Structures are given as structure tokens and as C-alpha cells.
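Re: your question from the hallway

Yes, I did run it. Sequences:
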Amino acid sequence: MIQWLMNIDRRIIFVFVFLGVALPLLANVFLPIKPTRDVISVYDQFEKVAEDEGIVLLSFSYGASTEPEMQPMARAILRHCFSRNIKVVAVCLWPEAPGLARKVLEEIGDEFGKTYGEDYAFLGFKPGNFAVVLNMGQDFRDAFPQDNWGTPLEELALTQDIRTLRDFDFVFDLAAGDSIEFWWIPYGQEKYGFPFAGGCTAVMAPDLFPFLQSKQMVGLLGGLAGAAEYETLVGRQDKATAGMSAQSMAHLIIVAFILFGNMAFFLSRRR
Amino acid sequence: MQNKPPSWLVGLVFLGVIASDCQGQDAQSGRGSLPLIDNTEAFDTPNDAGNSITLTWARTRSIPEGGVYKAYIAESREGPYYPASEIAGGANLQSEEPETFGYGDAAWDAHFIHITEYAGGEGVVSLQNDKTYYVRLELHSGNRSTRAPIVTASAQGNYFNWKKLNNIVLGGLLSFLILGFISLARHRDLYIRRIGGLEALDEALGRATAMGKPVLFIHGLRDMSQISTIAAVNILGRVASRTAEYDAALRVVAPDPVVMSVSQETVQASYFEAGRPDAFNTKHVFVAGTEQFSYAAATEGIMVRERPAAHIMMGYFYAESLLLAETGSTTGAIQIAGTDAFTQLPFFVTTCDYTLMGEELYAASAYLSREPKLLGSLKGQDAGKAIIIAAIVLGALLATVDIPFLTHVFTPH
Amino acid sequence: MIFLSRTLPVIVALCFGVFGIGIYYVPHAAAQNLERELALWLRVVFAFSYLLGLYSLLNLHWQRIRQRVEGWGYSAMVYVGFGLMMLFVIHNDGKGPFAPQAEGTAAENGYQWLFEYVQVACSSTMFSILAFFIASAAYRTFRARTPEAALLLVAAIVVMLGRVPIGAYISEYVPAAAEWLLNVPNLAAKRGILLGVSLGAIATSLRIIFGIERSYLGGGDE
Amino acid sequence: MTRDTYVFLGLVLLFAVVNGVLLANGVLAADWEGLGVIVAAGLTLALYSFLYKDNPLFKVAENIFVGVATAYIFSQNWYQTIYGEVFVRLSALGGEDSVSGDWWLLAPTVLGLLMLTRFSRRFGWLSRLSFAFFVGLGAGLTIPRTISSFILAQIEPMLQPLSWSIEGFNLLVILIGVVAVLVYFFFSVEHTGVVGKVSRVGIWFLMISFGASFGYTIMARLSLLIGRVTFLLDDWLGIM
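Structure:
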């Protein structure tokens, strides 16, 4: 019996997973979400910027492959910024990011009636990974002479006084790869000491805990769960929160599979 | 350009002077008038690009509530003096900036401000380098005030950042160790311990031969310039010489034509050395696919069709690791993996019989190839690790008994 | 010739490498200006290096088409996707390629349309396929073969349950345990790995600067 | 025709019918956006067909997407940097608007172009100069920053007083973990005796952290799946 169960076609398992994800989504259940410490500290940092009527640099370092994880996060962060009148300058460090960044900026910008060039600016992508961060730190306009549509930065009200990374009150990186750990921390935060935090895919999140304890990062949003926690803090439930019920169900299924599989493994070994 | 002594030295000497003067000040403050400002000094702000001067003075404990220090600056002794900075009476103690003024107790007994600009007649003016500025510090409280004697300084760009002294010393030490061991490795064979994974590898190959089935070697996705790929090729050499010796069939799949041709040469050389050049067939080393998932799917196909007795996965893997290891383990083969892709390691650990983790892969490669640059680096890094371990253990102990010396040494500024 | 192709690159790497280290410790404006200029250079060279990747991908598939390698039709599909997108890149809403990017949205502009409905759709779907394989692997292969693997699986289960809302329903200790695991033992191991990897990075950088490591130069004869 | 071919044709037909119904019911608009959703849904399903088995539909979708992505990445480099900075500024050189500093831009441009000689047999050696600059400078910039951000900054928070409290206990666990992991990756001594025991502790710490990564990676992949299923159910079928 156990042998037979262990050898079932994996396509049957695939169906299980699909249903485990689709059914909770269709049922539209919203589970209560409790924000964790590292997400709250990101929120508090944005609040502090809002009190000082400050300006933040939002760096988009993710591509199309992690869109379902990262886009809800970007949306929640921007909602927070725009609802509190924080000015946002957005740059892209990944070549696939501009299409995604632009979409979310325009969507949330319109939602809050924000004006391009005054409330937010979109500077597009620059290749060079860490070199772009280094360049921005030395001279912001040297790295980004114009915005994504070719307008020089001195002609935009928001960016005309920005000279270096020091002119930002907070830098937040949305990352799907090396950008937090190997670009922003050693080439930006290390030298200029601005408050820095990031949101990243769940794959990377466990790697970043050492930087939280060493205070090199103010806080961290990890994956869709982090995005859902942020949506809760901002008070606007959206795609990430909606996904959490499916996420919960799918995790239960996987845990059940692991437990069952191992039980079978040990039973068969004992024989 | 004048030679700057280390900032902490300036701080220490200077603070010593201040500390000895503090008693006098306490005596004065009893009289009801504002205390005098003692030991005012101005100098170029150390460790910066210029355009900044620093003003320091002794702390007075008898400042009335609401007292403020105001600094005025002028380009000539006669003035006009413009307001440059204003701080609350108890603010800006030197202890707030230990990277400039040191960690000594004296830093609690002196104030500082950095002046980079002032409110001139026609707006904000930045300080210029190599220009003498006259600075007057005043203490205000209500309508009373006292003035310190005028001091002068000029701003300069500095040629060394003394705050980075710990960085350069540690960097120098590590460089010396690593380069030293590499050059040592050229003259003699350095010892590194046996790598458990290699024994597991031999065992797997032994069992594969006993079963009379082929061995499948799977490269990671990165190209030939990567250390992990080079390590994988070194390990392939070992695998090939064993299969040649035991007369077992070997299949090698690669995602890249260059990795494939290097692998062919390596396998051929191993077979030649084992005296079995006849058993080598170039067709057994091939590109299975070039896109991530196609490569994984093609390799899975081989696993299912040929049912190899052992799967050996070496190099840098991405998400396809899961597909490979999962299919691999369901065929019942012995699986040995080695990767420096830490995100993929969990999948290998749970699906493989033995996994070389991170640096173990490089160590295995160095152990097999005995190449001086690899062995030497490894030994140099070991020395670096020893230093770090010693610093952590000793530093934590010292900090616990309230001697934070090492903590200060290891603080980056 | 040997000087130009072998010795000169090593000298170049040595000079710029030593310079890159040294400039970090010099706060003088002249040095910082130079660092800014070099960062700009790196950025520009980096942009060209993408062309290298582009060429090698297109060339790889071209060779497959030319040699009629089995499955060459799929390689032709790479050209179909590439060509289609390039048409819109060059057209750029009538502004041509020698102009900043056009502002049209996905509804007005083929470039954004292809990005949103082909690239984003395919790219994220590709990696979501792994969710299915993880489930199947969880069922059939994630085994506690050794005590170490058992520890790994237990930690994984705690984290998986602790980081989603359902965890708190099971027990309030589940999220707390996950939090502790991540913030203490996980942090320790990740920091240990980071320290080791950093030493490795320093060693590799030194080997490159001092010409001991030359494989990155390519060209085959090293 | 094999069974798989019938299955394939059946699915294509089903897909066409579903889209017809969606268009007729007004769930999808008959405009570029509606077409986009249909195409995206088709590609998503084509890629998921890999779950059944590796098949031509999957490979076609995969390769088309590789082509599109390559062109997109190229274009972002082109618009913003190669055209937007290099081309614009270099073509203005010598003219009235030119900035004197822009002459310096010739250097990285030449280095960048030399990089492209890599594939030439005769001039390939020129590319080595570009790589030497690029990798050499990168290596130099890395060393001091690695020491500062990853060694000093990571060690310093551990050199704090230990105390009889939860924080003190956690700090102690971190200290033990870091040391044990470093000992595990220490290759100069045999893992026997005390060293062997410490390195065993190191493995446990590594395993817990791998477990955390494992859990988080599963979470990430499932999030992507949730995103795609949401797309199919909501944006395409409109039933969410």
C-alpha cells in the first residue's frame, strides 16, 4: 500500500497543488495577518521621512520572473509613500525592471492624484550593478543625467536639488538578486550611511538577517508574506493579502507531503 | 600640504589639555555670570575632502538652562562675522564622534562642531579650501553672553582617511597571508585535510561499477571562467580516472560548448593516464541543452532512460537543481552533489547521499589538483578565518569584562 | 605580441586594481572625482558587455539553425521573438531608435505590450512551475536520510508554518519559533558563511589583481 | 497520430472556445488589452504543459520568450545608456554644446567596443584589455568594501558584553554558531577531537539555516504560482 502510494504519478500531486492554490483564491478568504518586527521598522522609517517631508530613493532591482512576489510589495510601499506625501525618486538597476516600475508608479500615482516631476520621478535603468550605486553616491546626475523619457534632471522640480545619495532621507531597494547585499550595502550605505532597507524575494530573505542585526539595514520585507504584512500596516488589503490564504493552504499541503513521505520512508526502511 | 598626525592622536593630546583645565572652570561658574569658554581651538576637519573646519572647546557643567553656543565666522580678523552654527549648551560632545576624537574619557569633557558653510550677506556660503577663516564662539543665555578668543583655521582636502586605519591594517594582513601562502604553495606541498565528500565519491563509483551501470556527471550552469566550473572539471578528472580504472561507463552532460570541450579533454586525459585510451568516446561528453529548463529536462531524460547507478552534480546550479535532484533520487541512483550556490544547497542536502557545501567544493578541487594558487588561497583564507575566530572569542570576552578595546578596533567608520 | 596579449592585460589589471583599493582610503576631492569618473567608465563598459551576451546567445542559436542541429526550429523561435521585439524597439512609436524611449503604455505601444503579456507572463510562469516540482519532491524525495537532513526539514517546517497566517492558528509559538530560528541560529550560520565567502572574494580579487588568476581574460591560451 | 497529439489538439480547441465565450460575454474586451490577456494566458498554459511532459509547445513558448527578453534587455541598454549617454554626448563633441569632460567618455567607449572583439580570432586579444580594466578595477574596489561591510561590520555587533538575559543568550548562540561554522569550513586541521565536535555544531547551525532557506524558497515558488493562478482566474477567466 505504502509502496503504491509512494509511486503514484507525480502529475496527480501536481493537481493537488493546483487545487490547493486555486480553491482558497476562489473562496476569497482573508486571514488576519500580524506584521513582524522587521516589517514594522520599515513602516516606521517611512513614517519618519513623512514627518520630515523628506524624499526617498526607490530602487527597482527585480525582473519579470519575480513579478508576482515583488510587484505587490512595490505597490504597498508606494501607497504608503503617496498617502503620506513622501516624494519618490525611482531608479532601476535591473534591465527588466523599467516596465514593471513604470507600471506601478503610474498606477499608484494616479490613485493618489500625484504629479510627475513634482511628487515622483522615474529615471529608468542604468547598467553597471554596483558601479551605478558608486556613481550615484559620488554624483547623482553623473549616473542619471536624464529621466526615463530623456528630460534632464535639472528640469524636474523634484530632482533639481539632488546631488548625491546623501540628499535622500531613506533608500529602499526592491531586490530579486544581489542588489541589497552586494551593491547597496558595500557601495552605498557603507560610505554615505543613509538609512537603508529593502524588500526582497523570499529566496533571498534568510541571507539578509545578519545585516539587520548589524544595523546595516533598518528593516526587511521578505517575499509575498512581507508584502502582505505591509499591506496590513498601510491598511489596504490587496493581492498579497489575498494570496496569503492560498499560501497557507499550499504550505500545509507541502508540510503534509514531507511528513507523509518521511513516515513512509522510515516504515519501509524498518522492514 | 602639511602632514596630519592621526586624528585620534590629535584628539588625545588635545583632550588631555582640556581635561586638566576643567577644574578651573567649575570654580568660575559659581559666581552667577555665564561661564567662560575654555580651550577653544579650530583646525581643518580631518579625514575629509575639504571645505570643512572643526571647532572644539571644553565642556562646562554649569551652563544655565536654554544656553546655546553660537559660532561666527569671518574672512578677516576684523570681520564682518557671519553666523555659522548654533548648538544647545549640552550638545555635540566629542564622545558622539569617536572615529574623530577617540574613545577616551576625555571625549566626554569637550564639545565640537564641524563648520562647512555660513549665512553670508548674500545667502549661504560654503567654506573654501586653503583660506584662513576667523572663528568666534559665543555662549548665550537670555540676554547674557560670553565670548571665546578668536581662533583661526583653514580647510583642506586630506590624503588619508585615518578612520579607515583598521580597514587598511586588516586588509594588508589578509593580503599578506593569502599572497604569502600562494607563493609558499609554489615551493612545497601544503597540507589540507581529507575531504569527506571525495571518499563518498569513490564509494559511489565503486558501487556503480559493481552494478555494471553507467555514471552520469552533470555540470552546473555557469561558464568556464567561474571557479565553481573549474572545480567541477577538477573533480570530473578524478571521476574519469576511477571509471577508467574500474571499467565503468561515464556520461558527462554540460550546458555550454566550452565547458563540454574542456570536459572532453579532461576525460580523455584521465583515460589515457589510466592506460585505457580505447575506452574513451567523445560522444559520451555532450551538450544536453542550452536553456536552463531544457537542459534539466534533457538530463532528466537520460536519468530515466539509462538509469545510471550514480549521479554526480558539480558546479553552480540555479533553480533547475530541484528538477535534477528530484528525478535523480526517484531512479534510485546514488547522488553526490557539490555546489557553492547556497540557495540550492538545501535541495541537494535533502535529495542527495552526500553534498559538498560551498567552500568544500573549492577545497575538494584544490585537494585533487594540488594547484598552488588554489591550495595557497585556501590556506590563506584559513589563516583569515583563524584571525576572525580569535577576534570574536577574545573580543566578546573582553567586552564582557568591560574592556571594549577589540570592539572599537573592529568598528567600521 | 605576447606582451600585448598576455603581459599588458595583467599590467592593466594590476594598475586599476591597486588604484581601486588605494582610492578608498583617500578622501581628497581629486581622488573622489577620479572614483566618480571610473565608476562612470565601469558603467559604460558594463553596458557594452550586455552586447557580448546578446551576441553569444544569438550566435549560439544561429549555429544551431545553420547546422540543422536536432530541434533547430526552436532556435528559430528565439529569432522570431527577438525580431518581433526589435521591430518595436526600432520603431519606438515613430521616433526611431535614435531617440529616448517612447512613453506609450501597453495599450498603445507594441513594445510595452510584448513586455507585459509575453515576457512577464512567461518569465514568472517558468519559475512558478517549480512550485509543482517542489510539491512532488516534498512527497517523494525530501528525506531525513541523516540526522542533519532531519534538522533541516524540521527547521523548514517551522519556518514554512510560522511565516504564513495559518501558523498562528496552530499555536502562537509557531511564529515565535520561526522568528527565533531566523534571527538567531540562521543569522549565525549565514554570518559564518558570509565571513567565509568574503575571505574567498578577497582572495579571488587579490589573485586577479596580481595576475595569478587569468581565466577571466579568456582567449583560451591560459 | 499519437494520443498526445489528440490531447494537444483538444486543448487548443478548448482554449479557443473558452476565449470565444469570454469575448462574447464581455469578460475580455476585443482590444489590445484583451488580446494581451489571451496571449499571456495561452503562453502560461503552454509553459504549464511541461508538467505533463516536455513537449514542443513548451519549447516554442520558452524560446520565443527568450528572444523577446533578450531584445528588451538590449533596448533598455540602448535607450538609456548607449544611445542616451554615449551616442548623444559623443556626437556633440567638438560642437557648441559639448562639455569638455565628455572627451573622457571616449575611453570607456573604446574599452566597451574592444570587448566586442572577443569573438574574433585575430583581434580577440584586444578584448583582454577591456576585461583586465573591468575585472581588475572591480576586484580592487571590492576588497576594502568587503572588509568594511562584511567583515568589520559583521564582527563588531558580536563583540558586545554577554549578560544573563534573553539578548545575552541569543548573542551567545550567535557567537557559538559563527565560530562553529567557520571551524567547519576550516581545512587546515583534521576534523577530529575538539575541532571535530565544534565542526559538528557548525553543521547543525548550517542545517537550520538551510532549513530556513528551504522553507523560504518553497514560499517564493508558491507565491509565483499564486500570482499566475490569480492571473488565470481573475484577469483571464474573471471568476475571482
